[in-house]
Amino acid sequence: MVEKKVAVVADPYVSAFYRMLGFLAFRAGSPEEARRIISELLAREDLGIVFVAAEYYEGLGDDFLEMVQRKRPDLIVTVLPTPRERGRPMDVQKELLKALGMG
Questions:
Q1: Total-model pTM
Q2: pLDDT tens digit string along 61-81?
Q3: How many CB atoms lie within 10 A of CB 96?
């Protein structure tokens, strides 16, 4: 079984923080740039989860996220709360079902 890695797509400050913790971290400046980075990451078989900064995640669009799920059903792309984003309750059951391909 191949060991899967975790990647983070966020602004330069947040990505630098996660890079220091040992994550694969990629800098983005907008949702469009985050979308481009994630599209490139789809070719990497060693990734299991991609966390996207909340301020970019909402701008990815449902169509894009569905395309990612079709191309890589084994890859989870999810939101990463950041200091710039106001927190809000998360429907954990809904996110878990989505990650399992059942929601």
A1: 0.79
A2: 999 999 999 999 999 999 998
A3: 11
